[in-house]
UniProtKB/TrEMBL annotation:
Residues 106-499 form the Cation/H+ exchanger transmembrane domain. It holds the Pfam family NEXCaM_BD. One of its GO terms (cellular component) is basolateral plasma membrane. The lineage of its organism: Eukaryota, Metazoa, Chordata, Craniata, Vertebrata. It is a multi-pass membrane protein. GO terms for biological process: regulation of intracellular pH; sodium ion import across plasma membrane. This is Sodium/hydrogen exchanger. Belongs to the monovalent cation:proton antiporter 1 (CPA1) transporter (TC 2.A.36) family. InterPro entries: Cation/H_exchanger_CPA1, Cation/H_exchanger_TM, NaH_exchanger, NHE-1-like, NHE_CaM-bd. It is found in: Basolateral cell membrane. The keyword Secreted does not apply. Residues 598-680 form the Sodium/hydrogen exchanger regulatory region domain. It comes from Chelydra serpentina (Snapping turtle). Residues 694-801 are annotated as: Disordered.
């Protein structure tokens, strides 16, 4: 049985290729125009008359020619053959364009199907490489039958194939990771692209000046224009490769964000150098205006996208009664944003990203779940088909286009592209890591540099060059195609084993939970509060400002119903609940749920509920008061207070006094604790006479006799006397008696002086002995130092000395 299964597997694996061969054979008759099927349209002559050159009028037809009776007779010269079936016929010219488009899309879908059916191929070769190979084969087949293969025109690429891919990426953009790394992405996209363009253009100009290369006629502006075309990272190629290797979110958003945002730099540099090529002399004013045009193109594209995104969100507010057209508004407004930006030579990619990011939270709050599912899967399908067609037509256009091969120019372009990318990433990462909390490791830098793929955008921009001003257009296109093939085939095929070899962290497919969302919001509010306390207006501060403005004004205008007042956490809970319910239905988990309760049992339940005493209903005022309390105490995590700044604080006059009071109380407690321990535990080493006088002189009244032992002597010590503490006198005039056993056990009793009244404190009523020197002495004496623990049973001051 196993042998039979092993023999039958290749036949099933070869099934998609049989469909591909059938489609290719079906393309052959479409490529050979049949002269018998081409019919000429009737020609009606027009008579141009009028006294002025602008007057164009058509001569009136003769009545005898215009009105002809329908007869069955035909003239001998215009005899028409009779058909066997008058209705049936072949008219390929009528359906040629949609029929060929459908065949190309069918070929793309069959190739994707065959790619995923055979896992051994998909694990080695990226999908983009296989599609380019298919395009090369199809182009060679078309050229082999004597026809000219179709070329990927720039208008078709920029107006029809690129927008679905960018809209899918912008609408489902991971906004949190994108905003947290926006500074790094902008540095790579703007500074990195400028570095690559000017570095590559300058070096290529130096190569062209070498004698013997045959490139002397290529000037500086042409090389800079070529550098601006080839320096931009392509989002289509990055998406195709990085989604297959499942790289971690940080590296993916850095490389993909760079490929999205460098469109503005590429558009500005391309049009700028193209215009400068027509000037006889470039002035400083032209350079300054060109630099300012970058901000106009980028910010203008973002502004157009934001406007269309707000309009789309506002329109979706009124679609509750007609849910069918909800997805259509998302597609139309996004596409209108792209076309409006391209109308004024602004960045269409920036407009699409901005419109998708702005409209998504409000549109998803207004539309139904079915509309959301339609938008999601239609965008994924549309972008996947467009991506497949782009790579196939890259291969076809390579066979169909005209090429001019110059070894020096092409090899130098390839080497300088790699050098510029590596140096740019290393230099910018060294600068970025000085400000980042999460540093970019050398492994991350290698993946960022190695993932700078080029694609169809560079090819389309090169195809737009005019032969009149750029006679080297064919050589530029050949170099661009070489760089594209090298980055897609070599770097795209080797990046997966390199990621595994370097043990780069990959993306972890985890589902978001309520616990994670609660902790994320908690950390956001905590970091915002820390920034407010420090007086620093950072990323979290402005994010909190934007969220408050959005909740207070924007949501009320763009979201219909009570959803506009719903907290973010509750909205996320509803979303997760709906998602889990759909997954439960799709997985067949409803079979495990107990069956419905019978009608009799339900009647019993209703009867029992009806017998319960009715609950007292709350009044409107009471309900509104409860809601206000909940809003003030539960939803608001903090109140907006004056920002803390340690440089502008006003000193509190009572703060120093309170601190002194707390310190004195703490020291008094510590001293009392130590003195109580010393009642029966003496120190091993006696103090010197001078230290003893200082200790007792600091507070003479602290040494008092026990109140319950009248037989203990009262000792007085004069601090100013040179005598030592060993010479003591009995105040009662009693002669010195031998120590009794009780005295030997108990020794002397030392007590801390108590305050005069419980309500007073010595901080505000300083005594006579509260001089600074006495306070320092008390602090010194409160710490006995690193002495060994005394043994129990020994008095503090032995009486026999």
């Amino acid at each position: 049985m196993q042998a039979k299964g092993s023999r039958g597997a290749p036949s099933l694996g070869a099934l998609p290729f049989l469909f591909i061969v059938a489609v290719l054979l079906g393309l052959l008759p479409c490529l050979q125009p049949n002269p018998m099927l081409v019919s000429e349209a009737p020609h009606y002559p027009a008579v141009i008359s009028g006294s002025e050159a602008g007057d164009v009028t058509a001569a009136p037809l003769d009545v005898s020619q215009a009105i002809r009776p329908l007869t069955n007779h035909t003239s001998p010269g215009h005899a028409k053959s009779r058909k066997a079936f008058p209705v049936l016929g072949i008219d390929y010219t009528h359906v040629r364009i949609p029929f060929e488009i459908s065949l190309w899309i069918l070929l793309a879908c069959l190739m994707k199907l065959g790619f995923h059916v055979i896992p051994s191929v998909s694990n080695i070769v990226p999908e983009s490489c296989l599609l380019i190979v298919v395009g090369l084969l199809v182009g060679g087949l078309i050229k082999g039958v004597g026809e000219s293969p179709p070329i990927l025109k720039s208008d078709i690429f920029f107006l029809f194939l690129l927008p679905p891919i960018i809209l899918d990426a912008g609408y489902f953009l991971p906004l949190r990771q994108f905003t947290e790394n926006l500074g790094t992405i902008l540095i790579f996209a703007v500074v990195g692209t400028l570095w690559n363009a000017f570095f590559l253009g300058g070096l290529m100009y130096a190569v062209c000046q070498i004698s013997g290369t045959g490139l002397d006629h290529i000037g500086l502006l042409a090389n800079l224009l070529f550098g601006s075309i080839i320096s931009a990272v392509d989002p289509v190629a990055v998406l195709a490769v990085f989604e297959e290797i499942h790289i971690n979110e940080l590296l993916h958003i850095l490389v993909f964000g760079e490929s999205l945002l460098n469109d503005a730099v590429t558009v500005v540099l391309y049009h700028l150098f193209e215009e400068f090529a027509n000037f006889e002399q470039v002035t400083v004013t032209d350079i300054i205006l060109g630099f300012l045009s970058f901000f106009v193109v980028s910010l203008g594209g973002v502004f157009v996208g934001v406007i269309y995104g707000v309009i789309a969100a506002f329109t979706s507010r009124f679609t509750s009664h007609i849910r069918v057209i909800e997805p259509l508004f998302v597609f139309l407004y996004s596409y209108m944003a792209y076309l409006s930006a391209e109308l004024f030579h602004l960045s269409g990619i920036m407009a699409l990203i901005a419109s998708g990011v702005v409209m998504r939270p409000y549109v998803e709050a207004n539309i139904s779940h079915k509309s959301h599912t339609t938008i999601k899967y239609f965008l994924k399908m549309w972008s996947s088909v467009s991506e497949t067609l782009i790579f196939i037509f890259l291969g076809v256009s390579t066979v169909a286009g005209r090429h001019y091969w110059n070894w020096t120019f092409i090899i130098s372009t390839l080497i300088f592209c790699l050098i510029a990318r590596v140096l740019g990433v290393l230099g910018l990462t060294w600068f970025i890591n000085r400000f980042r909390i999460v540093k970019l490791t050398p492994k991350d830098q290698f993946i960022i540099a190695y993932g700078g793929l080029r694609g169809a955008i560079a090819f389309s921009l090169g195809y737009l060059l005019d032969y009149e001003h750029f006679g080297m257009r064919d050589m530029f296109l050949t170099a661009i195609i070489t760089v594209i093939f090298f980055t897609v085939f070599v770097q795209g095929m080797t990046i997966r084993p390199l990621v595994d070899l370097l043990a780069v962290k990959k993306k972890q497919e985890t589902k978001r939970s309520i616990n994670e969302e609660i902790h994320t919001q908690f950390l956001d509010h905590l970091l915002t509060g820390i920034e407010d306390i420090c007086g620093h207006y950072g990323h979290h501060h402005w994010k909190d400002k934007l969220n408050r403005f959005n909740k207070k004004y924007v949501k009320k205008c763009l979201i219909a119903g009570e959803r506009s007042k719903e907290p973010q956490l509750i909205a996320f809970y509803h979303k997760m609940e709906m998602k889990q319910a759909i997954e439960l239905v799709e997985s067949g988990g409803l079979g495990k749920i107990p069956s419905a309760i019978s009608t009799v049992s339900m009647q019993c339940v209703h009867l029992a509920v009806s017998q319960l005493p009715p609950l007292s209903s709350l009044s409107k005022d009471k309900e509104e008061e409860i809601r206000k309390i909940l809003r003030n105490n539960l939803q608001k995590t903090r109140q907006r207070l004056r920002s803390y700044n340690r440089h502008t604080l006003v000193a509190d006059p009572y703060e120093e006094a309170w601190n002194q009071m707390l310190l004195r109380r703490q020291k008094a407690l510590q001293l009392e604790h130590k003195m109580n321990n010393y009642l029966t535990v003496p120190a091993h080493k006696l103090d010197s006479p001078t230290m003893s006088r200082a200790r007792i002189g600091s507070d003479p009244q602290a040494y008092e006799p026990k109140s319950d032992s009248g037989n203990l002597p009262i000792i007085t010590i004069d601090p100013a006397s040179p005598q030592t503490p060993e010479s003591v006198e009995d105040l009662k005039g009693m002669s010195r008696l031998p120590p009794s056993p009780e005295e030997d056990e108990e020794g002397l009793v030392m007590r801390v002086k108590e305050s005069s009244s419980p309500g007073t404190d010595d901080v505000f009523t300083p005594g006579a002995g509260d001089s600074p020197s006495n306070q320092r002495m008390m602090r010194c004496l409160s710490d006995p130092g690193p002495q060994p623990e005394p043994e129990e049973g020994e008095p503090f001051i032995p009486k026999g000395q």
